[in-house]
From TrEMBL:
<feature type="binding site">
    <location>
        <position position="138"/>
    </location>
    <ligand>
        <name>Zn(2+)</name>
    </ligand>
</feature>
<dbReference type="Pfam" id="PF14559">
    <property type="entry name" value="TPR_19"/>
</dbReference>
<dbReference type="InterPro" id="IPR051156">
    <property type="entry name" value="Mito/Outer_Membr_Metalloprot"/>
</dbReference>
<feature type="signal peptide">
    <location>
        <begin position="1"/>
        <end position="26"/>
    </location>
</feature>
<protein>
    <recommendedName>
        <fullName>Putative beta-barrel assembly-enhancing protease</fullName>
        <ecNumber>3.4.-.-</ecNumber>
    </recommendedName>
</protein>
<feature type="domain" description="Peptidase M48">
    <location>
        <begin position="71"/>
        <end position="255"/>
    </location>
</feature>
<keyword id="KW-0479">Metal-binding</keyword>
<keyword id="KW-0732">Signal</keyword>
<keyword id="KW-0378">Hydrolase</keyword>
<feature type="active site">
    <location>
        <position position="135"/>
    </location>
</feature>
<keyword id="KW-0645">Protease</keyword>
<feature type="active site" description="Proton donor">
    <location>
        <position position="203"/>
    </location>
</feature>
<keyword id="KW-0862">Zinc</keyword>
<comment type="similarity">
    <text>Belongs to the peptidase M48 family. BepA subfamily.</text>
</comment>
<dbReference type="InterPro" id="IPR011990">
    <property type="entry name" value="TPR-like_helical_dom_sf"/>
</dbReference>
<dbReference type="Pfam" id="PF01435">
    <property type="entry name" value="Peptidase_M48"/>
</dbReference>
<keyword id="KW-0574">Periplasm</keyword>
Length: 485
């Protein structure tokens, strides 16, 4: 469902993340233990507020991938790691940005972004997990807050000014970068040293998390070493190497740490390779012939267990190019092999709708929903199949439940808007569009749309009361958001 340069925002956040801090103590290496500092100057609640604000600005400006299947995969992988991380104090949100450059970054409130380009360079799930584990450690060890605390200590600037500069950088990148430059002009060598300390600390905690989560701990030094070698003589480095420098001593240190853990052989992950194939087919920015060639070449060399992923990727290319006769036999065979696989269910649902047989999609998804009644991928596809059959009332009921459980997913609100329009429900359309605008920090427009919906509703009705209550909530959120800048 939902077929579908370097990020200044990501660089700004990640660059700020990679400055002053101090290392913690390792299990087997002598490093000073200073705990997770910064709690005295920036509370967890404040971090959550800033994180929510940054995320809303990113939704408005960054090419975020709103793909239910990929979102589920990345979220599941990320939380598998979080469950095995130490010092977790915030919820975590994982999301993808459509960008072929290799990069990942973390910011306040447990938000972690990965570029789609990572899937093109990470050769295994353990390698992707090593990047996520590293970013999780940046959050759990509060590197951004500690960095800002150190900068505030060195110069006559408050934590609020530094945090406000970060928010300004997302709202207006040029002004924001100037503000950050003005407030962080300290000892450059000291910043480099602190950056290296942060990166080594994140590696150390990341490797520990990888081990406890059951991944190959050697994936981190292997992936980082390969990147360093590949770009050793490059004049232009990918963002990840600019914000996460890879000097030889860091690679050597991570390799030594990995060797101190029990070695585990991890089988190739079908889920990772399905996600990778989906990225190649839809988000790599390459032509169909090139995507088919990439998938075909890897299918020849792949072990039998992951060949279905390459076939799935080929089917997506055919599906997106309306070559339904080529996509259908592949997807139907894959579904027969694994009828609960949500990658296959999602693509097969799109296929049936494209074939003008949306009822087949509904029947298939209803069966799957009996086992997983609240699964986001199944629910959003089910609502889409109902919409394709003009079953608007039923679709609305599914979407009301979906948006209640997944209020930050714009997909649900877009479908709610589309369904409301087809029903002739202008109020529902305005409310759904208002929620999308609020998710992108366009508070005034969101409030305007809800006000219009309230004016259309019957005086004193439950609908009008609901719209008015939401307006009050949005006014509070807007004022809180503006106060952060």
């Amino acid at each position: 469902m939902f077929k579908k340069t370097r990020s200044l925002i990501a660089l700004c956040i990640a660059t700020t993340l990679s400055v002053p801090s101090a290392p913690l103590m390792a299990n087997t290496f002598d490093l000073p233990d200073i705990g997770t500092a910064a709690s005295g100057t920036l509370t967890i609640d404040q971090e959550l507020q800033y994180g929510d604000a940054y995320m809303r600005m990113l939704r408005n400006r960054a090419p975020i991938i709103n793909d239910p299947v990929l979102n589920e995969y990345v979220d599941t992988l990320g939380h598998q790691l979080v469950a095995n991380a130490d010092d977790v104090k915030t919820p975590f949100t994982f999301f993808m940005i459509r960008d072929r450059n290799i990069n990942a970054f973390a910011f306040f409130g447990g938000y972690i972004a990965i570029h789609s380009g990572l899937f093109l360079h990470a050769r295994s799930e353990s390698e992707l997990a090593s990047v996520l584990a590293h970013e999780i450690a940046h959050v759990t060890q509060r590197h951004l807050a500690r960095s800002m605390e150190e900068q505030a200590r060195r110069s006559p600037v408050t934590m609020a000014a530094l945090a406000g500069s970060l928010l300004l950088a997302i709202a207006a990148p040029e002004a924001g970068m100037a503000a950050i430059t003005a407030t962080t002009a300290g000892n450059i060598q000291g910043q480099i040293n602190y950056t290296r300390s942060n990166e080594k600390e994140a590696d150390r905690f990341g490797i520990a998390t990888l081990s406890k989560a059951g991944f190959d701990v050697n994936a981190m030094p292997s992936f980082f070493g390969r990147l360093a070698e590949e770009y050793r003589y490059a004049t232009t480095l990918p963002p990840m190497l600019l914000t996460h420098p890879l000097p030889q001593d860091r690679i050597t240190d991570s390799r030594a740490r990995a060797q101190s853990y029990p070695q585990k052989r991890v089988s190739a992950s079908l889920g990772y390779n399905l996600a990778r194939a989906r990225v190649v087919a839809r988000y790599a920015g390459i032509k169909s012939d090139a995507a088919l060639d990439w998938l075909s070449r890897r299918e020849e060399k792949a072990p039998q267990s992951i060949k279905p992923a390459m076939q799935y990727g080929q089917a997506l290319v055919y599906l997106d190019n309306n070559q339904l006769d080529k996509a259908a036999p592949i997807l139907e065979q894959l579904h027969q092999m694994d009828d609960n696989n949500r990658f296959y269910l999602d693509a097969l649902s799109d296929l049936y709708i494209a074939q003008k047989q949306p009822q087949k999609a509904s029947s298939m998804l209803e069966k799957a929903l009996k086992s997983e009644p609240n699964n986001p991928v199944l629910m959003i596809n089910y609502a889409n199949s109902l919409l394709a059959q003009d079953k608007f009332e039923q679709a609305i009921r599914v979407l009301q439940r979906y948006t209640h459980d997944n209020s930050n997913d714009v997909n649900g609100w877009h479908l709610m808007s589309e369904t409301s329009i087809k029903m002739g429900d202008s109020q529902g359309d305005l409310a759904a569009r208002a929620e999308i605008l609020a998710l992108k920090a366009n508070w005034n427009k969101a409030i305007q749309y809800y006000t219009q919906a309230s004016q259309m509703a019957e005086l004193g009705s439950l609908e009008q009361a609901r719209y008015d209550a939401r307006i009050d909530q949005l006014l509070v959120q807007r004022d809180r958001f503006m106060a952060l800048q």
